[in-house]
Amino acid sequence: MTDSTAQTPHSKRGPGRPREFDLPQVLDQAVLVFREKGYNATSIGDLCQATGLTSGSLYKAFKDKLGIFLAALDHYLTARNTALTARMAQGQTGRDQLRAFISVYVDASQGREGRTGCMVISALTEITTFDERMALPVLKAYERLEATLLKIFDAGRADGSLTLTTDPRITARLLLYTLQGMRLAGKIGYAEGDPADPIDTLLQLFA
Fold first, then answer.
1. Which of the two residues, 49 and 10, has the higher pLDDT score?
2. What does the pLDDT read at residue 191?
3. Residue 16's pLDDT band (boundaries 50, 70, 90)?
4. CA-based nearest residue to 156, from 99, 80, 198, 90
5. In this predicted model, what pLDDT tens digit does every residue of 109-165 receive, in sequence order?
6. N or C: which end of the chain has fewer CB within 10 A?
7. Do 152 and 83 form a contact (C-beta atoms < 8 A)?
8. Distance of alpha carbon 43 from alpha carbon 37, whole angstroms
9. Lowest mean pLDDT: which of 18-22, 81-85, 133-137?
């Protein structure tokens, strides 16, 4: 993969050199295309149009469409994890952190962001068309989210702000199922409404 730190969009190219570009910017554009259209419906032409690169440049940098998707997915997950960590860091108690965790999904399910869709959801709905290279990063993403929730539950029980009456791991997975379902519903605008409602309702499960 091309190292964006060593490249500038306006650098002169010699014969046979691949087109130089800003990698994070290219991946940002690729993420939007895959989120909106999904993997199967996205063509190399779509990616060329969105990124401003030729198909030759894309193939040299990423090998094939799956390579572009995997790089874009990693870029997307990194950004989402950074945003989630930053939101949670504002919480003083386990309950505050859980509210922050849920709010990230609620916010992402509404408005234009919600209708653009979730790249992980897109991957899951089409995963039978992929090989293990696709399945593994999606699985790892869910495992990281589950581990984050388990840490939140531990913190909340320790400080007395959360009460769990069921197995923590099962509870974490059920919460993830609910939140990912919300992201899917956001694609058609079904998750629109007062963002406080789903957050407060879900938090009642941990009274």
1. 49
2. 84
3. very low
4. 99
5. 999 999 999 998 888 777 766 667 888 888 999 999 999 999 999 999 999 999 999
6. C
7. no
8. 9
9. 18-22
Residue with tokens 């990230």: 104
- Residue 146 CB: number of other CB atoms within 10 A? 16
Count CA atoms within 13 Å of residue 135 on its CB side.
Answer: 6
> What are the residue ranges of helices labelled H in the chain?
23-41, 44-51, 55-62, 65-88, 94-108, 111-116, 119-125, 132-159, 168-186, 196-203
Decide if pLDDT at 98 tops 90: yes
Give dist(CA 30, CA 17) in Å, integer: 22
DSSP summary character for residue 4: G
5: pLDDT strictly greater than 80: no
Asked if 62 contacts 68 with a C-beta cutoff of 8 angstroms, the reply is yes
CB 33 within 8 A of CB 26: no
User: What type of residue is 119?
Assistant: M
Check: CB of residue 98 under 8 Å from CB of residue 200. no
**What is the overall mean pLDDT for the chain?**
87
Instruction: Report the alpha-carbon distance of residue 33 to residue 49 in Å, rounded.
Output: 10
148 three-state secondary structure: helix
Q: Is the dihedral of CA 33, 35, 36, 42 positive or negative?
A: positive
* Vertex 141 angle, CA 139 and 144, to 5°: 110
How far apart, in whole angstroms, are the C-alpha atoms of residue 22 and residue 135? 27
